[in-house]
Amino acid sequence: VGVRVPSGTVDLYIAILGVLTAGAAYVPVDADDPDERARLVFGEAEVRAVIGESLRIAVQAVAQQDPASAAAREAADFPAVADPSTDPQASAPAPAKPGAPTLTDDAWIIFTSGSTGKPKGVAVTHRNAAAFVDAEAGLFLRRAPIGTSDRVLAGLSVAFDASCEEMWLAWGNGACLVPAPRALVRSGVDLGPWLVENGITVVSTVPTLASLWPVEALADVRLLIFGGEACPPELAERLAVPGREVWNTYGPTEATVVASAAQLTGVGPVRIGLPLDGWELVVVDDAEEPVPMGGSGQLVIGGVGLARYLDPLKDAEKYAPLKSMEWDRAYRSGDLVRADPEGLVFLGRADEQVKLGGRRIELGEVDAALQALPGVAGAAAAVKKTAGGAEILVGYVVPSEPGFDPSAARALLAEQLPAALVPRIAVLDDLPVRTSGKVDRNALPWPLPGVEEPVEAAELTVAEDWLAERWATLLGERPVRPEVDFFDSGGSSLGAARFVSILRSRYPTVTVRDVYDNPTLGELAARLLAMAPEEVGQVAESVPDVVPVSRGAQAIQIAAMLPLATLGAMRWLTLLASLGNVVDVPWAPQVSWWWVAAGFVLFVSPPGRIAIAATGVRLLVRGVRPGDYPRGGSVHLRLWAAEQLAWRIGVLTTVTGPWNTLYARALGARLGPDVDLHSPPPVTGMLRMDQGSSVEPEVDLTGFWVDGGRVRVGELRIGAG
Description:
It is a single chain. This protein is an alpha/beta fold. It has four domains: 2-101, no CATH class; 128-348, ANL, N-terminal domain (Rossmann fold); 361-531, GMP Synthetase, Chain A, domain 3 (2-Layer Sandwich), CATH 3.30.300; 551-718, no CATH class. 32% of the residues lie in helices and 19% in strands. It is built from 22 helices and 31 strands. The strands form ten sheets. The chain has a five-stranded mixed β-sheet. The protein has a four-stranded mixed β-sheet with strand order 2-1-3-4. Strands 14-15-17-18 form a four-stranded antiparallel β-sheet, with no helix packed on it.
């Protein structure tokens, strides 16, 4: 059953669960992929039905059905959507076998990029899937396993096999799966705050996306899994902190999502690790003999995770027996690794397969699409890296006739290929080749200035010029005209997210949607200027109007000073009363020792002062939330009174050493294990310190401040370690 439901929706996951519950296998296609791709995938998989948007079903006409039926007419424009409630023919596919699926039946079929230009369907059985779920359940968070209190991010496309990990980390452990809207995932930067708002504790993602999130966005995350692309050591060092498990995983779709894993500590090389339970790994040389420990070679995978290709010829080739290990089936990964007893180290590819944004791409598939374009005599694709560290897929074409239009060619490719496979188009006179006659991808020119037909540079505005500099850092070439399109220049959804993170240094409210809606240099510059009318580089000098606090607010403060001063004097009165009971002084009061003892407990001892201050402060600030409030308003006055109470009761001179954490918790602060707090906590109670964090003396933890005519209240968060 085909599934083509928009990402980030509950319907998508209901559709997948529904298909599996019915005993069928689901075949996912990203809702954003072109119809041509969907037709190809669903045709290759011979699906009987497609679940589309709003969970409506379209049935594919099969040979034994009436070609004139309504279902057949719907299928002619496959994947169309029919409603079984109004079309009885649409609910009558060829009968499926009755009963529950067996271990050898397929659970899902995911298509990967193919070197011949046609995507390859990989079928995963229930045995493969169950082994994968069980292996990961015994691998991650062994001391405190994933459970019903956890919330798992669902942010990856279901056409990407890593989405299976997201789903089954939740469903296999009773946790809550939380779908993220596609627009948020594309933004990269904005997904960070969303993780906090939704209390996400488990994340499986690609390193490039995680690198865009601020560290505090992962404060609640106790399990972070990387996969799909190489993890930079500096990212592992930044995110592998006490209280959080960070794992680097490796595995092709052909071996059921993950074949090996390594826990990252932030120290030493980033490894792809050791095999999951039930998986077998061996590093072999060109003769397919195992290399000695420390040697390098191709990684071959065996064991319970081996899936199969729908194409029997391809399956026999890639899953042939490995005689040196006496394996009946073995998958040749094409990945070069170094054998190491502590875990495998990834070295690169042995063929022309690449990883881009976590997605596996066969350059041969892009080559085939480029060569099929009208007016193209020769073509080749390559991944190039810009000065800003971004990777761009570039399609180099040699036209067969003058007047070749790169923009029109790219638009045609977008109708046939997923967005991740649509390259930037560069026009060459010829392609560099090796002595073997094959295209030398390493010799394809980069950077590109001068590759395409030269154009006369237009005069750019100040805003466009500023934007062009950031554009060039990311995409490798400076746009010379306002009409230059970000996506035609090699920008991708992930590139747009990185671009926005750069622009936010000056324009904090810009979003990825702004880039999609204004893709050209001129349009985006105009959009940025609309956010900040002054020209780029010019600082607006504005002084806010600040009016005095109202007389009413001043009167309240004056009236509150009497009870506050009385509370502050109680510890001194207690000391005076005790003196009067010891020394015969005519003016000293005579008070019962019971009252003196009570006074000492309440107003002199640290626990007493903390109890009074915390109780009074929490009553005063009850209901105050992060935000902006008017100066002199009720929230401002309550915060002022709370600080006055804490100061006059003397709690700030008391809360040193162990008393600090007690006072902070009494105010409502959330402190993890093994924290050190040596500065007074905020009276708002809006403080969070994760495991192993530390605050030294004289650190300002006030948590609110007066800014002109406004009072800003915020939460303080300190990450683990």
